[in-house]
Amino acid sequence: xxxxxxxxxxxxxxxxxxxxxxxxxxxxxxxxxxxxxxxxxxxxxxxxxxxxxxxxxxxxxxxxxxxxxxxxxxxxxxxxxxxxxxxxxxxxxxxxxxxxxxxxxxxxxxxxxxxxxxxxxxxxxxxxxxxxxxxxxxxxxxxxxxxxxxxxxxxxxxxxxxxxxxxxxxxxxxxxxxxxxxxxxxxxxxxxxxxxxxxxxxxxxxxxxxxxxxxxxxxxxxxxxxxxxxxxxxxxxxxxxxxxxxxxxxxxxxxxxxxxxxxxxxxxxxxxxxxxxxxxxxxxxxxxxxxxxxxxxxxxxxxxxxxxxxxxxxxxxxxxxxxxxxxxxxxxxxxxxxxxxxxxxxxx
Length: 348
Description:
The chain has 348 residues and is an alpha+beta fold. It has 14 helices and 18 strands. The protein starts with 6 loop residues before the first helix and ends with a helix.
């Protein structure tokens, strides 16, 4: 998560702080994610870096380690400060493939791409969200078999339809399996903090199923379930149940947007490995999908996406783009509902 801290990060930060305003060179093999965090710390705190470089290495080949790693090189000098770092795709390359840097208080993956497209930054009327989080897929996710459902424990159970929704995972979005989902999700709430007690009266089979698996659901470790109704989920709201969505995989290392509709008379939901925009009409979803799959959008996101990250495409990155501004620049704003969307945004 966001709070993860590597001991090597602490060591490198301490070394740079100690070398600040001195003539020195620091070189260290480390994870590329650690290198970026160290550089961000140095740039935010105005450490006297004269120049910096990240030289990518094949950690699997050289160290038998499955990690994205690099040689981080930092040159320091008195009263000299640079907020750029050249990125070399291989250790011995003489020309960098791009330059990452610190611009307007944020870390950017590609300085040139950022300069080309920074005018498209903005909140805008659309808001990206992650899918529904339940942290217990063996209990909450199913494959449908005739009129019954098989869970991840191998149990074949009979449940009411009321709380079951067709579901897509990140792998489905990335591989185009979006028309006929083969998985279903048990969604116990329609909005965060909604009482789950009503399930007992309205869907007794579902309530019995939840009680039968209460030991696993009650053992979910995430703090988001504390002080929430029993069997609660997270990341759920009216937006989860719109008839149309524009979605993108959060785990795969490619940027592609797809239109997601409904299946078997129900809106398709996403699990928390996917990201999506809620849309009320198919036309709106088509318009947004076309804009987001454009070269201009790809260029914008290339300024912010670090492909070596465990989850490179996040809602934070996606929400940097003002989709309306991009659509206007492309002359493809038809189908977008500006005023209504603005009112919706302000009410959230």
